[in-house]
Amino acid sequence: MTPKELLDKLKNDATSKVQQTLDAIYQVCLDQQERGIQDFSVATISKLGYNSGVPKAQSIRNKSGEKYRALISAFSESSINKKSINPIKSDEDWIDEISNPKHKLLARILSSELKEAKKQVDEILPPKLRIDVYDHKSERPADEARLTEQERRALEYIISSSFQNKWELEANEYGEMVDSKNKPVFKVATVDAIKKALEYL
């Protein structure tokens, strides 16, 4: 049974208030699913939907929240099954899910540049080279692999407000960049990964 089918079934004998709450939970879970985020915990769904009619986490966990928990679980199970049945075929499959043509083109360009940069790094660095990450209190070896100034400026630009404003993007709490319709353009943790690279390389 799909989450939508379960939603319709749960609403059959429910009060108007419960029906509205079920619809609110369904929409929040659907948004999570469309963003490719696998987190369907009660706490997360409650937090994301608090302003749209989703009850507090404790209310969902109570006996009266049985229908709400069932709907959230349906999304969680559906997400797991979808992931196992339809594995990602390539690193760029997620780009096809971008609806905005401008953002899709930008993502493909950046993906291509990233591949080229990785290829150049692989050619420069010896195989099996060990790169240790040191904190600010430790002395860094002189021959440590570091970003060039040009590479650093490129990464800084990606997470800058000017870049995000130009392409109508916004970084969210999951470290992904989403467009004006809240659709992900850069994967979860992209922003965090760039910040770590700038800090340690």
Helical proportion?
55-70%
* Major beta sheet, strand line-up: 1-2-3
- Taking the alpha carbons of the first and last residues, their distance comes to 49 Å
* Proportion of beta-strand residues: under 5%
| Rg from alpha-carbon coordinates | 22 Å
Structural class comes to mainly alpha
Oligomeric status of the shown chains?
A: single chain
Q: Which blocks of ≥5 consecutive residues have pLDDT under 50? A: none
Q: What is the overall shape?
A: elongated
Quantity of strands, as a count: 3
Rounded mean pLDDT is 82
Helix and strand element order:
HHHHHHHHEEEH
- The total number of structural domains is 2
> Describe the biggest sheet?
3 strands, antiparallel
Q: How many H/I helical runs?
A: 9
Describe the secondary-structure layout.
Elements lengths: L2 H9 L4 H19 L7 H7 L8 H5 L4 H20 L15 H24 L24 H10 L2 H6 L3 E2 L5 E2 L5 E3 L3 H11 L1
Antiparallel strand pairs: 1-2, 2-3
Helix pairs in contact: 1-2, 1-5, 2-5
InterPro entries: GmtX-like
Explained architecture:
- The protein contains nine helices and three strands.
- The protein has 201 residues and is mainly alpha-helical.
- It folds into two domains: 3-85; 93-200, no CATH class.
- A three-stranded antiparallel sheet has the order 1-2-3, covered by helices on one side.
- β1 and β2 (177-178) form a beta hairpin.
- The N and C termini lie far apart (49 Å).
